[in-house]
């Protein structure tokens, strides 16, 4: 199964999918020392984004997110890739600066195609995400 | 992307290695967004402090300074994470403070003006209609686009620094006419008499439209909003909705009428904001099983007029023993507040005045919360109420006078 994306940056990566129904900011929602989402009430509260391919429908506020991506990459707690439904320039500027693959726009939406824990391959050059069959 | 002679010269190394790398990075960002070319910018505002950048960011900056990075256009800094005068008393880490000093020194070597303010648009530089800038801190960007009619995207720290080194930014988003058209209408029926009310409007509109490219058009309001009111509206829209621009009919320069702001198209929808909507926002916050011992006036920093109002509210009063009240502002505003006596009134009342910082990015904030047994944070800023969540504060939005009352009584009504 394949999800086509509208815009994309970065090398091909494979990893475990983490799907969120709620948007994301590495500043508002994330503990930047553990890579765990800590904002009280966030739909992924308690979940780690480390080495995951993270699917978020939206991006939230926050210019500081730009340095935050570089910071979590430096600390070794970055995700494999960010897959956004709709994103904003800060997320893109931050991810590109940190060398983390990032995509925007999805067809079809991931909800019906991929679930948390599935293995996926993000291919920015071809602008698609493949859901890999379980071993 | 189409490159002009100047950009080709930068890529060829004519302006040094730091500028070359910066432009290469900007090209990747521009390609992502489908930018066709670069636009020169006159002014850059960047976020850069040890709390947001971390050790990796400091190492990067150190390398950049060593590579001879120099700003090509005037570049100012946003609020930072340490006020050195209060560092020890707040229990901030001495090692991090030393890194912050080194970071500031690196920025100054690059010719960055370390103004340390998130209200540069009130205190440092006011771009004119159509002027291209590259600003960071979302509140500054939405103010520039909306109130001044200037043109900027949200420029994250690395992106703003790149723009500072090259003097340009990729042309996409709010640099283009196509994205500046109003997309939906908001009729304001509520009186909106306090700054917190304006933030609450930003919350209601922003939460319902989390989209950078959604541009609300406010209309139907019967009074002239002040700069501070528009500041709280914009900061909240940017924070809750990730929005970069709004129009306000009869107030902002690209909105002489509702039709003009929508550029002749139909609004995708119309929202109405009433007094009941605001009441519902305020009643949505509660103490939980905690108390109301922390009141914060920050995010954005206070203007001189906000300082004056706070001085009136705290005149002759005392922050309740065991409670804490913080105000953050810029160095310039604080100096004027001292000269005018506002700072003394506030300090006599037991309010802590922090300079050049924002409460929410204070270094060591989570341990500070734990050490002080703070569970709730009360503020008149809808923005800070939203963004401080990752530090595990429960937050409560209240009007300015109520916040002062809560600080002095320790009780939330």
Global mean pLDDT of chain B: 96
Low-confidence stretches of chain B: none
Calculate Rg of chain B over CA atoms: 21 Å
β content of chain A, as a range?
A: 25-35%
* Greatest chain-chain contact: A-B, 41 and 47 residues
Q: How many DSSP-defined strands of chain A?
A: 9
The biggest sheet of chain A, with number of strands, parallel, antiparallel or mixed sense and barrel status, is: 7 strands, mixed, barrel
Secondary-structure blueprint of this entry?
The complex is a heterodimer of chains A (135) and B (413).
Chain A: E1 2-9, E2 13-19, E3 30-31, E4 36-37, E5 52-56, H1 65-74, E6 81-84, H2 89-98, E7 102-107, E8 119-123, E9 128-131
Parallel strand pairs in A: 2-5, 5-6, 6-7
Antiparallel strand pairs in A: 1-7, 1-9, 2-8, 3-4, 8-9
Helix pairs in contact in A: 1-2
Chain B: H1 5-11, H2 17-33, E1 38-40, E2 44-46, H3 50-66, E3 75-77, H4 94-109, H5 120-123, E4 134-135, H6 138-148, H7 157-166, E5 168-170, E6 184-188, H8 195-208, E7 216-219, H9 227-241, E8 247-248, H10 258-261, E9 270-273, H11 275-283, E10 294-302, H12 304-314, E11 324-329, H13 331-340, H14 342-348, E12 352-355, H15 365-371, E13 376-379, H16 382-387, E14 394-397, H17 400-409
Parallel strand pairs in B: 2-3, 2-4, 6-7, 6-9, 7-8, 10-11, 10-13, 11-12, 13-14
Antiparallel strand pairs in B: 1-5
């Amino acid at each position: 199964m394949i999800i086509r994306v509208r815009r994309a940056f970065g090398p091909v990566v494979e990893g475990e999918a983490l799907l969120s129904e709620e948007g994301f900011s590495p500043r508002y929602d994330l503990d930047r020392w553990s890579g765990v989402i800590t904002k009280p009430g966030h739909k992924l509260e308690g979940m780690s984004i480390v080495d995951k391919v993270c699917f978020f429908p939206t991006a939230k506020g926050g210019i500081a997110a730009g340095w935050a991506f570089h910071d979590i990459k430096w600390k070794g707690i970055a995700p494999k890739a960010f897959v956004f439904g709709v994103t904003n320039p800060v997320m893109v500027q931050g991810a590109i600066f940190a060398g983390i693959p990032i995509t925007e726009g999805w067809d079809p939406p991931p909800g019906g195609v991929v679930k948390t824990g599935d293995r996926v391959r993000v291919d920015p050059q071809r602008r698609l995400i493949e859901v890999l069959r379980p071993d | 992307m189409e490159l002009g002679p100047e950009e080709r010269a930068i890529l060829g190394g004519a302006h040094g290695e730091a500028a070359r790398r910066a432009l290469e990075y900007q090209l990747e960002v521009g390609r992502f967004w489908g930018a066709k070319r670069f636009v020169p910018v006159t002014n850059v505002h960047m976020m850069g402090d040890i709390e947001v950048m971390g050790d990796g960011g400091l190492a990067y900056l150190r390398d950049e300074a060593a590579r001879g990075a120099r700003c090509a256009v005037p570049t100012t800094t946003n609020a930072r994470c340490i006020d050195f005068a209060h560092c020890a008393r707040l229990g901030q880490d001495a090692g991090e403070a030393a890194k912050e000093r080194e970071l500031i020194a690196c920025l100054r070597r690059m010719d960055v003006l370390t103004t340390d303010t998130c209200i540069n648009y009130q205190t440092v530089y006011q771009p004119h209609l159509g002027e291209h800038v590259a600003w960071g801190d979302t509140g500054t960007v939405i103010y520039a686009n909306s109130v001044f009619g200037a043109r900027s995207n949200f420029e994250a720290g690395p992106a703003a620094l790149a723009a500072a080194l090259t003097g340009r930014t990729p042309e996409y988003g709010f640099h283009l006419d196509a994205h500046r058209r109003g997309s939906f209408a908001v009729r304001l029926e509520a009186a909106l008499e306090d700054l917190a009310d304006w933030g609450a409007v930003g919350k209601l509109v922003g939460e319902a439209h989390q989209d950078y490219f959604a541009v609300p058009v406010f209309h139907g309001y019967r009074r002239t909003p002040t700069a501070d009111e528009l500041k709280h509206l914009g900061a909240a829209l940017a924070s809750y909705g990730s929005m970069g621009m709004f129009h306000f009919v009869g107030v902002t320069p690209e909105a002489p009428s509702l039709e003009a702001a929508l550029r002749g198209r139909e609004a995708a929808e119309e929202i109405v904001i009433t007094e009941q909507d605001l009441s519902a926002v305020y009643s949505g916050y509660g103490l939980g099983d905690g108390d109301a011992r922390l009141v914060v006036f920050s995010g954005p920093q206070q203007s001189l007029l906000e300082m004056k109002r706070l001085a009136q509210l705290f005149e002759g009063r005392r922050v309740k023993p065991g409670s804490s009240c913080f105000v953050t502002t810029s160095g310039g505003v604080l100096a004027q507040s001292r000269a005018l006596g506002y700072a003394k009134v506030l300090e006599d009342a037991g309010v802590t005045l922090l300079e050049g910082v924002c409460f929410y990015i204070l270094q060591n904030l989570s341990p500070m919360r734990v050490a002080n047994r703070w569970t709730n944070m009360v503020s008149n800023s809808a923005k800070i109420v939203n963004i401080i969540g990752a530090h595990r504060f429960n937050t409560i939005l209240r009007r300015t006078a109520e916040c002062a009352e809560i600080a002095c009584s320790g009780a939330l009504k």
